[in-house]
Design a protein that fits this description.
The complex is a heterodimer of chains A (174) and B (478). With 174 residues, chain A is of the alpha+beta class. Helix content of chain A is 47%, strand content 17%. Chain A folds into 2 domains: 95 residues, Histidine kinase CheA-like, P2 response regulator-binding domain (Alpha-Beta Plaits, 2-Layer Sandwich), CATH 3.30.70.1110; 66 residues, no CATH class. Chain B has one domain. The longest helix of chain B has 34 residues. The chains are: A alpha+beta (174), B mainly alpha (478).
Chain lengths: 174, 478
């Protein structure tokens, strides 16, 4: 099973933004887009759902902070309580700074790890760029040719309106 | 961070660059052979590093009795340098995180090098507490102290422990933030490098980045979250550093103003260091069109604002001491201004509050030689600020019979010089091997202050784009 893709190349962010919005509104399926920098609004134009990574960040941050409070309490009040200047064993306000730091550490490290998992990035992964210049100045929009509504002539007309530089057909093995 | 183009704003990046030109210009620095300026700087930095390494080896072998400390002045050069370096790091996080949240597109030209500065400065700072332990090979006694009764845990009520966690978190988050920002740029260099060892190495570091829009979306989210985390973090780090002093009962240290005062001072000193580095780097690497006079101007304004906050803090400290009616507090401040080490105090005031006022003038801010000189003066002044707070507060305590003075030994001076060696060695290597400007972020702000037509994409003149499309398309369809 393979799918046929129409790969179009653009030179400017406004073009790919407009093209992806129009393509999506025409009922075609966008298989992916590749850009040299973060094009703002492209996710909305493509109809991508918002990233859920902030929830990972929140969850791990809260878990890390909670663990740290418990750990500080356990070491200073339970495992080996030591009288430091007559302060209470469970001097919670004094635990706040370390708890905050550990919370930030857990939240920050976890969201980056989650990002690498979600985006399937890892050291040694072979990048297969849609175009070697996509990390330089090329914008690439990949449209799936699967649907019955796909009409090559119409799609080319549409892409031309957005100053498409080149259009290419590719087959992708699944 | 592509803001809406406005004809009212001057372009951030000069020379009407296209994205392809941006890649070429910034990567050109990495492709060139190092210049004699780079080699001179690098060899000097290495020499200083070797001197520092020798000094550290000697003091670890012999003990920290090689320092000029005495019973009265138990903290001096070592902690001064620690706070000095940590403070410098803060401007990097301000530029990379706080200005990102405040949507300041100009940060894109300087954030990479400022973040690098943060990381190297925190490395230098972290060295001092490790040396100060005296027997660093027994550092594991802290986690926890092993003995027959069981685990003797560290005291989590101690500000020194807070400080350890703050620095650890700060370093880790800064490093992650820096690396994350670099992944797309490493992929850019990877794709323009010929196949070979370098390309394979870059391939590993860039984690298989291919510019996918979905990945960019996640990336932007993570970047925003990290900026949101780093912003309170950077404030907390210097706050906690100030608590090392503020939670004690030493007159001159035991004040509630210390946290905001330290944070403002940190950003002030860090901005001065960023200015020092960027003014030289932009010239040496030919990146004047990317780090423009406009960027320098904005950083000068941040330095001026924080410098004024610092001046206010100096005045407030004095007023509080006089108004408190506490004779020890009053003495501590009179001793700063009029005591035997008052020259340090007046260097501090003169450099930080006096000289920095020159930055009010547009002509001064536009004169890069003047800005460079002022930045150096501020760096010196901020070092003296920490020295004043630490040593002058300690050297004349409650009991006149225990009064003493302090002067650093050569070992301490050599160690400090060594940290400069470490800092500049790292920074110069960074300039050679990593794009000093965030390529992908700069591409996103090219449109700021420019009309759409400036882009020679398909819109302006040149052999009609549609004709080109037609021919290529025919090939494809044939």
């Amino acid at each position: 099973m393979s799918r046929r893709l129409l790969v179009s190349f653009f030179d400017h962010e406004d073009d790919i933004l407009g093209a992806s919005r129009t393509v999506r509104e025409a009922g075609l399926r966008i298989a992916g887009a590749y850009t040299p920098y973060a094009v703002h609004g492209l996710d909305k134009a493509m109809g991508l759902p918002p990233s859920k990574l902030p929830f990972v960040c929140l969850l791990l941050g809260v878990l890390g902070g909670a663990f740290k409070v418990w750990f500080e309490f356990w070491t200073t009040a339970v495992d080996w309580p030591i009288n430091v200047g007559g302060k209470p064993w469970d001097s919670l306000p004094a635990f706040v700074p370390v708890t905050f730091e550990v919370m930030v550490l857990c939240a920050g490290v976890s969201i980056v790890i989650a990002f690498l998992f979600a985006s399937r990035l890892w050291p040694g992964k072979q990048a297969v760029p849609a175009d070697p210049r996509v990390t330089d100045h090329r914008f690439v929009l990949v449209i799936e040719q699967a649907d019955a509504v796909f009409d090559p002539v119409k799609v080319h007309e549409l892409l031309k309106r957005f100053h498409v530089v080149r259009v290419e057909e590719r087959e992708e093995a699944r | 961070m592509a803001s809406a183009a406005s004809s009212l704003r001057t372009p951030l990046i000069e020379g009407a660059k296209t994205p392809a030109q941006v890649t070429r210009d910034i990567c050109a620095v990495l492709d060139r052979k190092p210049t004699w300026v780079w080699w001179t700087g690098f060899l000097c930095a290495c020499a200083a590093l070797v001197v520092g390494a020798a000094a550290v080896t000697y003091q670890i072998a012999v003990g920290i009795g090689t320092w000029g400390l005495n019973n009265t002045v138990g903290w001096a050069f070592d902690i001064t340098n620690f706070v000095f370096w940590i403070g410098i790091g803060h401007a990097g996080t301000l530029i990379s995180a706080i200005l990102f949240l405040l949507r300041q597109p100009w940060r894109t030209s300087v954030n990479r090098s400022a973040e690098a500065m943060t990381i190297f400065a925190v490395m230098c700072a972290g060295l001092f507490p490790v040396i100060h332990m005296g027997r660093p090979w027994l550092a594991y006694w802290m986690l926890p102290y092993p003995n027959t009764r069981g685990s003797l845990w560290i005291n989590f009520r101690s500000p020194l422990v807070w400080d350890f966690f703050a620095i650890l978190t700060y370093f880790t988050i800064s490093l992650i933030f820096w690396y994350l920002g670099m992944i797309p740029d490493l992929a850019t260099i990877r794709d323009r490098t010929k196949p070979g060892l370098r390309r394979r190495f870059l391939g590993i570091l860039s984690l298989g980045w291919d510019g996918n829009a979905r990945t960019w979306q996640h990336y932007e989210t993570v970047y925003k979250m990290l900026a949101g985390l780093a912003t309170p973090l950077v404030v907390s780090v210097h706050t906690i550093v100030s608590w090392d002093f503020a939670t004690s009962v030493i007159p001159g240290w035991h004040t509630t103003i210390l946290p905001p005062y330290f944070v403002a001072g940190a950003i002030f000193s860090g901005m001065a260091m960023v200015l020092t580095l960027t003014i030289v780097a932009r010239k040496a690497m030919g990146l004047e069109q990317y780090i423009t006079v406009q960027h320098i101007d904005k950083m000068c304004k941040v330095a001026l604002a924080t410098g004024c906050m610092l001046g206010l803090a100096y005045l407030t400290e004095f007023f509080t001491a006089l108004y408190s009616g506490n004779q020890y507090e009053q003495f501590a401040f009179l001793n700063r201004a009029l005591g035997p080490l008052s020259w340090c105090y007046w260097i501090m005031v003169g450099c930080n509050v006096g000289i920095s006022q020159l930055l009010w003038f547009r002509k001064v801010r536009a004169n890069l030689v003047a800005v460079f000189a002022i930045a150096i003066v501020i760096n010196v002044g901020m070092w003296f600020e920490r020295f004043v707070i630490i040593v002058i507060s300690l050297h004349r305590d409650y009991l006149p019979s225990s009064w003493a003075s302090y002067a650093p030994t050569w070992i301490e001076v050599a160690t400090f010089a060594g940290t400069f060696g470490l800092f500049f060695t790292c920074f110069l290597l960074f300039c050679r091997f990593v794009p000093v400007i965030a390529i992908s972020e700069v591409k996103g702000v090219l449109s700021v202050g420019r009309k759409r037509a400036v882009f020679p994409a398909a819109t302006v003149g040149t052999p009609s784009a549609s004709a080109r499309v037609g021919s290529e398309e025919k090939e494809v369809l044939a």
